[in-house]
Amino acid sequence: MKTGMEDARFGVAHLDRIALHYAEMGPEDGPLVLLLHGFPDNCLGWHHQMPALAKAGFRVIAPDQRGYGVSGKPRGVKAYDLDELAQDVIDLGRHFGEEKLRVVGHDWGASVAWWLCSTRAAQMEKAAVINAPHPAIWKQAMFTDKEQRRKSRYVKMFRLRGLPEWMMRRKNFSGLIEALEASAREGAFDKAEWEQYRKAWREPKALTSMIHWYRALLKKDLSAPVQRIEVPVLLIWGEKDEFADVSLAKKSIELCERGGTLFFGERTHWVLREEPKPINDMLITFLRSDQE
C-alpha cells in the first residue's frame, strides 16, 4: 500500500525538555509548517497533507507529540498540561530555526494550536485548526451544554485510573479501532494502517500518557474569560463530528480578530482524511498568504 509517506524523512529532535520523534517532508530551506496530530493519532495521520504541502514548497514537520509513539513520555498528569504541550511546539520550532510559527493542528493538536494563539501569540505567525474548539470553550461546554455533555462522556470516563487503558488495549486494540472507524466515513482509515497504529500504542507508557492529556485538561482552571485572538486563524470543520458540537466551532472562531472558516456539512471529525484535496488547497493558500 502507498501511504503517501514514502518520501518522508524521520528523525528525533532532542529538545531541552523532551525528545520528539518526527516525520519531515519538503525542502529544508522552505517556510516551516508544524503539523500537530490529535488522539489517538501520530505523525502518520498527516499522510494526505504532508506531500501536498511539501510539493507547494513548505518544509513540513509532523512530530509525534509528547506521550505518543517513541517520543518522550514524562510521568504524571501535570506533564501534559496545555502549557507544557505548547512549549514543546515553540521549542520544536526553534530547533528548526523558526521563532514565528505556522501551525496546523487536528483534534488535540488543534487544541494546542488554539492555546498557542491565546497564550504565546508573539511566537505565532498563523494557525489552522481542524475539528477542535478552543480548549476553554470545550471544557466549559462539557459541563454546561447538553449536547456537548453527551459527546464528551468518554472524556469523563478517562478520569478513571487504569480502566480506560485496559479497555483500549484489550483484544489487540480492537475496541479503539472500531471506535475510530465508527466515527469516520467509510474508507477514511485504510485497514493496512492499523498495524502501524498498534505499534505506536504498544510503546511503554503510551496509552497512559495519551490519556493524561485529557486528565490534565480536566484538572486545569480555564474559568477566566478568553481574550481576543489576534493571530490569523483558519478553522476547518466536519459538521458530523461525534466528539465536538459544531456550535463550539462557531463560538471559537468568534474569538478571532482575523478568522476564516471552511465547513463540510456531511463530513466527520476525520475530515482531513475525507476531504484532503480541498483542505490541502485551502491550507496552501492560507499558509502562503504572507509569502507572496
Q: Can you describe this structure?
A:
- This protein is 41% helix and 16% strand.
- The protein is an alpha/beta fold.
- The protein has a single domain, classed as Alpha/Beta hydrolase fold, catalytic domain (Rossmann fold), CATH 3.40.50.1820.
- The protein has an 8-stranded mixed sheet with strand order 1-2-4-3-5-6-7-8, with helices on both faces.
- Helix 2 crosses helix 3 (108-119).
- The longest helix is centred in the middle third of the chain and has 20 residues, at 163-182.
- The model has no long low-confidence stretch (mean pLDDT 95).
Q: How confident overall, as mean pLDDT?
A: 95
Number of E strands: 8
The CATH architecture designation is 3-Layer(aba) Sandwich
Bin the strand percentage: 15-25%
Q: Give the C-alpha Rg.
A: 17 Å
Count structural domains: 1
What is this structure's SSE topology?
Elements: E1 9-14, E2 19-25, E3 32-36, H1 50-55, E4 59-63, H2 82-95, E5 101-106, H3 108-119, E6 124-130, H4 135-144, H5 146-151, H6 153-157, H7 163-182, H8 194-201, H9 206-219, E7 233-238, H10 246-253, E8 259-264, H11 271-274, H12 276-288
Parallel strand pairs: 3-4, 3-5, 5-6, 6-7, 7-8
Antiparallel strand pairs: 1-2, 2-4
Helix pairs in contact: 2-3
Describe the structure using short key phrases.
292 residues; alpha/beta; Rossmann fold; eight-stranded mixed sheet; 12 helices; 41% helix; 16% strand; globular
